[in-house]
Amino acid sequence: MFKNIVKNLEPSSTLKINEISKELERSGKKIYKFGFGQSPFAIPSNVVEALKKNASHNMYLPMQGLCELREAIAKFVSAKKNYEYKSENVIIGPGTKELMFLLQILFDGDVLLPAPSWVSYYPQAILSRNQTHWVQTESENNWFPSAQEIEKIILKNKDKNYLLFLNSPNNPSGQVCDNLEEISLVVKKYNLLVLSDEIYSELSFEDNFKSISNFCPEKTIISDGLSKWCAAGGWRLGHFIIPNNLNHLRDKLKVLASETFSSVSAPIQYAAITAYNSDQSEYLKKAKNILKAVGEYVYENLKSNNVIINKPKGGFYLMPEFLNKKFSNSSEMCDDILKSTGVALLPGSDFGFLPHKMIARLSFTDFDGTKFMNNLEKDTKIDFKLISNFAPKIVEGTKKLKDWSESI
Ligand SMILES: Cc1ncc(COP(=O)(O)O)c(C=O)c1O
To answer: Ligand 1 in contact with 227 (CB < 6 A)?
Structure first.
């Protein structure tokens, strides 16, 4: 009854761990929900107000997205990149996940995925029947591929088209790519298409976020949306920015959009105009201040001789490697951690690492971000007292994990 390509697919592991954690909690076990990653903050209140005001919009909107919203996004993005994007360059989708899926469906070629990569790129490649090549990475290179690693794969068959996924700041590693320029040289040399997944870019802990589009704008599709910086994952609004020279690709994407989701919910699109047109700098400053402090707390208190971690640079995640020979794969290790400590993590194998690598993804968002934010003065330095007051499960869960790492 099922096609072969879907037979072996499981529900997305991030959504699965969320459900397992909730089920264990219902059965009375204390669970530290470090598996699922979503913003712990509330949506900025003026954006929520805008949604209320626009609830009566009931018409289908244009398949590329509401023009005023596309204009707002183009202006917002152009101010940050050295490229003048216009509303025609923007396409709105029900989350970037759907847009990325449609991109993979229309792309005729092979997909280059750094290991680690976000959990859905690979299943979407399978569903789109795209051959995937994993590009190996090292912690010394912030878990991003070097230009040579990418080139090594391309040189095996130079005649193919390639679509390279780059995600910085990265889920799962929490790292930022700082070899964009050398990667862009390979991109230009072999005419690659790049999907630059910048969904965490507004949550970079440093101010100087750089996109690969700064180096090769005409080869780069930028992917971003409301899900992370605006804490509106459940609203399902994302966008692609596609440069003029890829107009033909944008037009085909529009066709696929029109045959699948038609257009994104009208009230959400109207509300999103406010998200992009209003000044959210105070909200973002506080959100980043909290995430950086909480992430660094976990990093400082978990790292040891047998737990290797890179300090988080943006977003919600860090990626510990537990040096041990007790488990045969990272999934078995994460099951043991959950059973013996109540800490839910995701195994590195879900992100493309070889199963024997004892790597896991840890999401440091199990706290009430609204309460934390509301109790923060403008430039408060976040110390241990604040973290233990407003993120007690982070403190407890980190200690449990540290104890576990010393016991194996
Ligand atoms: C790296 C990355 N890309 C894309 C997405 C999907 O975001 P959206 O809500 O826009 O579909 C996520 C969400 O978890 C993510 O972590």
So the answer is: yes
Phi, psi (rounded to 5 degrees) for 222: -95, 135
- pTM of the shown model: 0.96
How far, in Å, CA of 339 to CA of 117, rounded? Answer: 26
- 96 CA: nearest ligand 1 atom: 10
Mark whether 352 and 263 lie in a shared domain.
Answer: no
Q: Is 361 in the pocket of ligand 1 (CB under 6 A)?
A: no
For residue 175, how far is its CA from the centre of ligand 1 (angstroms)?
A: 16
CB atoms within 10 A of CB 218: 12
- Which tens digits make up the pLDDT trace of 116-127? 999 999 999 999
Q: In this structure, what CATH number is given to the domain that contains residue 61?
A: 3.40.640.10
pLDDT tens digit string along 172-207? 999 999 999 999 999 999 999 999 999 999 999 998
CA 183 to chain centre: 20
Q: Where among 254, 277, 300 does a domain terminate? A: 277
Whether residue 31 sits in one domain with residue 20: yes
Domain count, the chain: 2
Domain finish residue from 277, 300, 332: 277
Atom 16 of ligand 1: nearest residue by CA position:
171
